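Issue: ligand-bound run for (S)-3-Hydroxyhexanoyl-CoA - logging full I/O for the record.

Environment: standard queue, default settings, no custom constraints.

Inputs:
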Amino acid sequence: MTAAEEREPLVRLERDGAIALVTIDHPPVNALSHAVRSALASMLQEVQANGGFAAAVIACAGRTFVAGADIREFDQPLRTPHLSEICDAIEASAKPIVVAVHGTALGGGCEIALAAHGRVLAEGAVLGLPEVKLGLIPGAGGTQRLPRLIEAHLALDLITSGRHLPAVRARELGLADDVVSAADLLNKAKALALALRSRGLRRASASPVTVSDRGGFAASAAKAAARARGQMSIAAAVEAIAGTLDASFEDGLRRERELFLQLRGSDQSKALRHLFFAERDAGRVEGLRGVAPRAVSTVGVVGAGTMGAGIAGACLAAKFQVRIVDLDTSALGRGRERARRILERETASGRLPPEEAAALLSTLVATNDMTALSKADFVIEAVFEDYDLKAGLLARLAKIAKPSAVLATNTSYLDVNGLAAACGRPRDVIGLHFFAPPETMKLAELVRARDSAPDAVATGLQLARRLGKIPVVVEVCDGFLGNRIFAMYRREMEYALEDGALPEEIDAAMEAHGFAMGPFAVADLSGLDIAWARRKRLAATRAPGERYVGVADELCEAGRFGRKAGAGWYAYRNGQREPDPFVTALVEKHSASRGIVRRPVSMEEIQRRARAAIVNEAAKVLAEGIAARPSDIDVAFVHGYGYPSWRGGPLYEADRVGLDRLLEDAERLHAANGIGFEPAGLLVELVDEGLGFADWPKLQRP
Ligand code: 3H9
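Outputs:
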C-alpha cells in the first residue's frame, strides 16, 4: 500500500436516503489498485448487508471515473479480490447499482460500468476498453458483457481497436441510459437507481448476444486480425468475443480469464506497458519544473499545404482560434476544405457535435495577409523545407508577431539554432516537427534550440498535448532524433538492395517484423522529391568514400516521385503497390556497376541489419544528448515511424535481443559499409559494463 493509500480512505460509503453512494477516491485516475479493489469489495458487501440501502450509485472523486486496473501492479503476483469477482458481485446484486461516469471509464472502469444495472454519463465522458493497447484483453468480463449490450461487431471493433466511445455515441447505442451535465450527474444516477427498483434489473450476462449479421461479424474479425501485424492481444480479443456467439456466458468468462492471464505475463504486454509509461515520461523535461506555459488561444499557421492545412485543422479541432496564411489563394481554399474534412471526421466519431464543428470552421481565418498573425499567441510556419525560405519567413514573423508569441518552425531536418538566431527573437523560437498527416500522426518532435526560453518550450509541449500529440523533446542536429536514425536505417536498407535484395523483399521483411510499412513503401508515400532535394544539397559535404546508392536519384530523374506520381520504388495500379520490373532492372544495373555479385539476402538478415543500424545510431543520438532518455527514442519510433508497438520500441527491444549481439551486428555493418557506421561508443560501453539501455541513467555522469 502506498503512503497516500494509507492516509486517505480510497473508497467512501455515504448514505443519501435509501441510496448508498460509493465514491472511489484514488488520485490521479482512480486506478483499481489492490487496496482500492479490497475497499470496493467490502463497501459492496456492506451495501448488500445493510437493509437501509435500497440501491447504490458508484461514482468517482477527482478528474475522472476509474481509468482501469492499476497498470503498475501487472508486474506483481495476482491478489484477491480480483476485479472480475467485483464485477460479478455488482451484476448479481439484487439491489440496483448504477454508475455515474465522468471523464474516462476505461478498462476495468468500463467493465464496472458494464456490470452495473444502469449507466449515467456526464457530457464529454468516454467509455473504452483499451486493454489491447497494453497487450491485454479486458479481464473482468468486458469481452463477454459488451457484445450482450451492443451489436457484437461493434463490440469487436471497440475492443480490438481500444478506441474511446464518446458519451453521445454510447447513448445512441443504448449503452448509456442518460447523458447529463456534470452538475446533474449524481442526482440523475440516484434517480435512475431508485427507479430501477420497480423496473427489474437488466443483467448483461443474462442478455443474448446481439449479432444481426454473422457474415459482417466474421468480416470485422478478419479485418481486426489483419490489423494486428503480430500483436497477440488483438487475436486473443477476437477469439474471446467470437466465443460469445456460441459459448455460454460462464464458459466465455473462463476463456477470457485464461487469455487475460496468458497475456498479462507475455513479453508483448510488458513491452506495451513500458511504452505506456515511456509516453508519459517523454513529457518530463529537464529545466521545466515550475515553468508556466504562455497563454495560447489563437494559433497562426503559415503555409496551407498538406502539413499547414493539417496542422490548422488539428488546431481547430482542439478548439483554438486559427488563422492560416498563404500567398496562394487556391491553396487557402484547399486548406480550408481540408480543415473542414478534419472537423467532419471528429463529428463522425462523436468527439465533436456537428453544430460546434460548424461554429469552429466559421471562425477559421484564411488570408494572404501576414499581418493577420499579429494577434496569434503561437505561430507555426509550415512552408517548404528550405532554409533560406524559412529563415526569411521567421524574420518577418518576428516583426509581426506580438512579443509574447512563440514562433515554431515545422522542420524535419534544418538547423533550428541558425533559424532562431537569424530571426532576432531566438528565445521565442522552437522547432515543432509534425509527421504527415499531422492531424492523425501521434508524434511531435519538439526541438529545443540553444536559446529557446523554457516557457516557450513549455508552451510548445502544452499545445502539442492539446492537439492529442505525444511530444518528445529533442535537441538540434541534422534530422533531430527521428529522421537522423531513420536515415541510417534507410541507408542500410539501400545497401541491402545493392547486395541482392529487392524493394519488395525488404519491405516484406520489415512488415513481417511488425512495421506498419517497409522503408521503400514509406518513401513512396512521403514522396521521393524532398529527400532528393536534400541529397543534392548535402552532396558537396558528403564524406569522400562514403558508400552511396544512387538508385533513388535515378528514380527521381525518371520522374518517379512515389505514390503521388503513380510510380516510385513501386508501380501503382488502382492505388495498390506492385513490384516493378523497371526498378528491378535499375537495382541490378547499380549492383553490377559497383562490381557487386548479387546474392540472396534472407528476411532474417534484412531484419538484423535494420535493427543494428537503428540501434547503433540511436546510441549515438543518446550519447550526444539529442534525446533525453532511451525510452524517448522508443516513443518516437513507434509513434512517428511505425515501429511495432508490441516490441516496445527499438531500444527496449535491443535490451531483449542482447546488446552484445547487436554490437557484433553493428561491427559487421561497419566492416561492410565503412563511413557513418562506426559502432557507437555508448553501445560499446554498455556491452563492456554488462548493462542495457534500461540501465543508461547509471552511466550518466553528474
Ligand atoms: C485494465 O483495466 C485491465 C482490466 O480489464 C482488468 C483486468 C482484471 N494505472 O495519462 P496521464 C497514471 S488495463 C496506473 O498523464 P491524462 C499515469 O502513469 C488498464 N497508473 O493523464 C500518470 O502517472 P504520472 C486499462 C495510471 O489525463 C497519471 O496516472 N486502462 C493508469 O493525460 C496521469 O495519467 C487504460 O489503459 C493506470 N490504469 O490521461 C487507461 N492510468 O503522473 C490508461 C494512468 O506518474 N490511462 N495512470 O506519470 C489513460 O489512458 C490515461 O492515463 C487517461 C488520463 C486517459 C486515464
